[in-house]
Automatic annotation (TrEMBL):
Pfam family, one: Abhydrolase_6
Organism name: Didymodactylos carnosus
Name of the protein described by the UniProt record: AB hydrolase-1 domain-containing protein
Domain annotation AB hydrolase-1: ranges: 64-325
Keyword check for Signal: yes
Keywords for the protein's UniProt record, in alphabetical order: Signal
Matching InterPro entries: AB_hydrolase_1, AB_hydrolase_fold
Amino acid sequence: MNIWICILSLSYIQFVDAKAHCQQQYVSVSLPTSELTKLYEIATWFCYKEGTTNFNNKIVHLTIHGLTYDHTYWNFPCESSTYSYTDYVINKSNGNIVVLNFDRIGIGRSSHPPAYDVTIDLNADVVYQLTEKLHNGQFQDTKFDNIILVGHSLGTLISWTTASSDSGYNRFVNGLISTGWLHKNNPIGGMGIISSMYPVQLDPKLRQQNLPLGYLTTNPSWPRQTLFYNMNDADIGIVQQDEQLKETGTLGELRTCEAANNPLVTLKIPKAIPILLVIGQNDQCFCNVTLACDNSLIIQEREQQNFISSTETYVLQQAGHSINLHLNSHDWYQIASDWTQKYFRIKQEL
C-alpha cells in the first residue's frame, strides 16, 4: 500500500464519497474542573446511512477511543472500506445502526482542560452528558432509546465507569461493547506503554498546539507498531498513518486507571446491560504466555467473576492491541453487528 495515497486521502477527505454520512457538531458539556470556566466543547460526528431522514428506532453506537487516539480510530480515513468500524456497522445494519464518534475531552478538536482534571471520571461524565443529549433529542431531533457504548482500551475503562451504578452516569446506557481491555494486564506490556509516553512539548507533531503541561503522547523512538500491533496481521502503511494521526493522553487519566479497573466497578454494572468483550489474540497489554488470549472461552473464564450481567467474549485472531487497524478487523466488526442484532433486534428495512 502506498502511504502517500493515504496522506492525500486525508487532505481531500471531504471529496471522498463515503459510505456513511457524518455530520460534525460541537456540543457543550458542564464539567467540575479547577478552571473558572466550567463549560467545555466536545467535537462530535453523527454518522448514518446516506439518505436517512427518519431516525426513529435507530440504535446508537457511541464510540469511545483510547489513549493517544481520537475519533478517527473508529472511522479511519485511510482504506476506510477495510478499517472503518463506522462504515461497516452502518452498512451491515442497512442503516439501522447509527454511530456517534467524538474526540474525548482533552483530545483533538475538543476542549483541553488542565491535565490533572482530565481523569477517567471526568471522561465518564462527558459520556453521560452525550447519552443524555442523545436521549433528549439533541441529535437529529430524535430521542434515541437504545444507546450502546463502544469502547477501546482506555475508552472501555471509561465506558465501564459510565455504566457502573456507583457513578450515576448509566441512566441512558443500554449495552456495552468493550474492546482492548481486561481486568488483569500483562505487566511488561503495560510498562511498555507507560515508558513510551513523554510530554507533548517534546513531540515534533504536537508541540505546536501549546497544550497544558501534563499532556502526553507516544515517543516516536518507541514505534507504535511495537506497542499496538502484531505486524503479521497489519499493514506498515496503516501503522505509519497511525503515527501521523496520533493524539494525546493526560497524567490525570493515567493516575486514575487503577481505581477505575477495580472489579467492584464492573460488578456494579446492572444485569440489564449486556456486554460484549473483545480482545486481540496478541494484545501485549493483556496477553502473554501465562495470560493466554487464544480463544473466547479463555477470556470468558478470565473475566466472568468481574461482571454480573450477560457477558459474551470474542478473540480477534492474530491481532494486537489496536484491533480496528489490523487486516482482519472486519471479523470483529461482524461480531459487534451480530451481537447488536441479537440483543436489540434490529429491524432490517426492506
